[in-house]
Amino acid sequence: GEPRKFDPKFRGPIHNRHCTDIICCVIFIVVILGYIALGVVAWVHGDPRKVIYPTDSYGQFCGQKNTLNKNKTILFYFNILKCASPVVLINLQCPTTQLCVSKCPDRFATYIDVQASYRYRPDQWNYFRQFCKPGFNNPRKSVAQVLRDEDCPSMIIPSRPFLKRCFPDFSTKNGVLTVANQTTFKDGRGKTRNVTDLREAANGINNVLDSRSVGMKIFEDYAISWYWILIGLFIAMMLSLLFLVLLRFTAGVLFWIFIFGVIGIIGYGIWHCYWEYDHLKGIPGSDLTVYDIGFQTDFKVYLQLRQTWLAFMIILCGVEVIIILMLIFLRNRIRIAIALLKEGSRAIGYIMSTLFYPIVTFLLIAICISYWAVTAVFLATSGEPVYKVMANQTLCKYANLTCDPETFNTTNVTKLCPGAQCTFAFYGGESLYHKYIFIFQLANAFVFLWLVNFAIALGQCTLAGAFASYYWAYRKPADIPLWPLFSSFGRAIRYHTGSLAFGALILAIVQLIRVILEYLDHKLKGTQNSFTRFLLCCLKCCFWCLEKFLKFINRNAYIMIAIYGKNFCTSAKEAFFLLMRNVVRVAVLDKVTDFLLFLGKILVAGGVGVLAFFFFTQRIPVFAQEVPMLNYYWVPLLTVIIGSYLVAHGFFSVYAMCVDTLFLCFCEDLERNDGSTAKPYFMSASLHRILGKKKLSPKKA
């Protein structure tokens, strides 16, 4: 290829930089200001009380202070049978009158029975009346008119509050669903119905109520054991640090033990297959072929055939030969990979502050998530109350049309549709702002993805700059600049915000498309159109691959930006071609790094998990008295294991970035320099030794 133009005076990350991708930087700042403005507008218009408090048919919050409903915190449904499931009740509106009440009904009663007995049982009337519309106290009004105007519910059922709404008080008795120990109830319209009819109206509530008690127990366990969980995570942190520091001594040993272990296991597999093959010799039926016996559901039948063991033996021999050949031909590249891993461990040893940088990324992402979530909630609750005509008659032409509750009684609707009411439906609006709420939500999600990717990019570029300053120090550690991490962070923010934002923008667009595809897939799940599902599946797969590829390109582009300070596109192109010229080294290093870091994560999470298991199950005599009494010991145990894995992942992500940076620097070093006194290598002595004669040969153009 053509010789590359290099600066012969190059000595590590360039300090006399200039700003890159300025246009993107300006757009990014404008978008952030717009995002803040969107948050402010959503905050002004939104009202999270619409999520927290239920809303009755008059558009008033239940339990809101300084209103008639201040002591009525629970929503009561006149006819819960009209509601298909609690999901409909919580998210949408149910086509029945809803009223705020102070407590849920605790007995079965029907309006017909209560009205018939109100003279000599006034207490029953007074109890039932609290579930009627406020101010209604006319037992003489005919039942038909009361039910038509929905002044009172036709029936009340023993209920208990859940999510501040009254739901039937289900329980099972001898495997039979009951409400207050009854299996049937009167619906107030002359029919006796089975309790199972209520199940459709409150499907799954029982499970959710059970899960609430489980949730309380889990919360108690966390309250008691949080101290020990933190100790477990601290141990995980120390183990992760220890593993990274020791990698400079153990990387080669761990890798070769694993490789020879695999070769040994496959070798044993070949011997076992041969033994089985030889053992079946002469046994009747063992010489049949797989084709002769056809497809069998019992896999053991195939193990009686010599042909099966011969096939296994051939496959294992093939795998063994491939592994051995790869080790022979790639031995030098594997040695380079292991040397780079050791070099990465050494670099982290000199710049320990880098290990704690993921905390900064975590905090930035946590801020982004919090802002996005709050904005999303305020946007979702920023509508005005919308009222719709609710008619008992199915043929009413005004049904489901919007209406104004203040002027409703003066319109023709009540005359044409007797019993029709203007009730609260949902929060929305007709203004320009309300029409574009969906667009605002999409913009909220998009800017959120952009900011998260920017936070990750900033972290990668900062770490790359710090580790590059280590590699390009001719005398290590004497030539490593002071505060390499802070210097690198400053350079990334001051000069390369635009480039990092550009890379993050490309990734955010792809991720948003993936989110939309997932949403469409979820919506179209019910349809039986196999072509649409196939097309969506292909698109999802393509965009997943594209995202993975972009993440790989971006990561290496940020390393080149950290070293040379060029713009995003130039850096991405140079990184890509540099990696393509060293494609085998890239593949080997990637796999060796992935394996060792995965082994490290499993060792840390597994080690801490085993320790936590013995501790929480009181199997460590020394600490037996210290163990808290738990409802479920797996709660802190799982938390410790998952937390340990995430802690290890945080530390090892820094290490992976370190190895990737050193590798790109190593490739650059090989192309720039030839090991002569005029162009000395910057690599360490161990990498020098592995390259052998190459280091003295003049660099080819």
Number of strands: 13
Helicity range of the residues? Answer: 55-70%
Number of separate helices: 21
For the largest sheet, list the strands in their spatial order: 12-11-13
The parts where pLDDT drops under 50 for at least 5 residues are 1-6, 85-92, 204-209, 693-701
- The end-to-end distance, rounded to whole angstroms, is 8 Å
Could you give a short account of the major beta sheet? 3 strands, antiparallel
- Which structural class is indicated by helix and strand composition? mainly alpha
What is the 3D form?
Answer: extended
Cα-atom Rg, whole angstroms? 35 Å
Kindly report the average pLDDT value.
Answer: 81
Strand fraction band?
5-15%
Assembly type of the chains comes to single chain
SSE blueprint and pairings:
Blueprint: H1 22-45, H2 49-52, E1 74-77, H3 86-91, E2 98-101, E3 109-110, H4 111-116, H5 122-129, H6 143-149, E4 155-156, E5 159-162, E6 165-168, E7 170-173, E8 176-179, E9 184-186, E10 192-194, H7 196-201, H8 205-279, H9 290-293, H10 306-329, H11 331-350, H12 357-380, E11 384-390, E12 402-403, H13 413-416, E13 421-428, H14 432-435, H15 437-471, H16 484-523, H17 530-564, H18 568-581, H19 583-616, H20 634-672, H21 685-691
Antiparallel strand pairs: 1-2, 3-4, 5-6, 7-8, 9-10, 11-12, 11-13
